[in-house]
Amino acid sequence: MAESVRIIWTPALLDYDFGAGHPMSPLRLELTMDLARSLGLLTAPGVRVVGVEPASVAELRTVHDAAYVAAVMAASAGEDVEPAFGLGTEDDPVFPGMHEAAARIVAGSLAGAVAVWSGEAVHAVNITGGMHHAMPGAASGFCVYNDAAVAIRRLLADGAERVAYVDVDAHHGDGVEHIFWDDPRVLTVSVHESGRTLFPGTGHGLDIGGLGAEGTAVNVALPAGTGDAGWLRAIDAVVPAVVRGFAPDMIVSQHGCDAHALDPLANLKVSVDAQRRVAELLHGLAHEVAGGRWLALGGGGYAVVEVVPRAWSHLIAIAGHIPLDPETPLPASWSADVAERWGRTPPELMTDGASLAFGHWRDGYDPADDVDRAIRGAREAVFPHLGLDPQHD
């Protein structure tokens, strides 16, 4: 019998470390897995935790240019590389063993995809994954190798006819979209803060895919300051319809939690409760349209103590079919350890106490509202290509 969820984890994944002071601290992963363990999520029936070794060069080259992989390997070994590869920047500083650390993250997403596609697991989670900015020939935005894209390429090679990628990180999922821009077999959906106010500056609602793949890139670019009501309204108005219309064989989702109000790098105002609601939505869609086949990845998220461990523990719990009551207290032992080791006081509960009320798109459109204009633009640009009615579906 297939396990409920395959969790990809080994302490070696903490080696993806750009150094002291960098926002992409491996501490956020360590704290998340410690919290999930303390909540009993990793030892629940149907949950299996597995480690991985780094992906091979051949696997990386299914997405990345040979010259770029060689450059990462050279930089990882201490050699100088050309600036064109995006390495050695403030966002992507070079560190010893970088190639192996980044390739291990890719292997985690690959292992999860294969486990789900083969039927060994119903779902899989790799919270270290979701490196959605990495391009075929360059590092970008804290991302060295694009694990999501490599996993999707493997699914297509193994027989998937259509894969839906849904990205709810605050930042546009530009790397994954770029890689599959011309591929009608892959739907990329990104709900993000507008590029007018946030890196990488892309993801306009009129960007809908390349020639022959029109409608398979979906972008909902939200104004800075959007909170739970607008964020949930936008996702509800676009994501279920386009995923159902595309009818994928599998869903791959990226759950960067940097849309949270406390995140220091973005300008959205979303709660842990709303992020939990969207994880539930994607879980339900996987069961509805893709036979349950779902690979969930991490991504951004830089409120290391207050947000990331709770958001991704909820994700693990939902994928394991053991959802947590939002009012669940954080285990005293975990909170005490955080206070002792890091001098930080975590929240008391797994909830922010948000109401999650929002107006459904079918109940009316406000042309003066920036969120509604973003929703309408995306629906009108994409829905007809998927056989959907932007006015009603």
UniProtKB/TrEMBL annotation:
Q: A GO term (biological process) for this protein?
A: epigenetic regulation of gene expression
Q: Does the keyword Signal apply?
A: no
Keywords of this entry: Acetoin catabolism
InterPro entries referenced in this protein's UniProt entry, alphabetically: AcuC, HDACs, His_deacetylse_dom, His_deacetylse_dom_sf, Ureohydrolase_dom_sf
Q: Which Pfam families match?
A: Hist_deacetyl (PF00850)
Gene3D superfamilies, sorted: Histone deacetylase domain (3.40.800.20)
Q: Where is the Histone deacetylase domain?
A: 22-317
Annotated metabolic or biological route of this protein: Ketone degradation; acetoin degradation
UniProt-recorded Gene Ontology molecular function terms: histone deacetylase activity
Q: List the protein's name.
A: Acetoin utilization protein AcuC
* Species per Swiss-Prot/TrEMBL record: Pengzhenrongella sicca
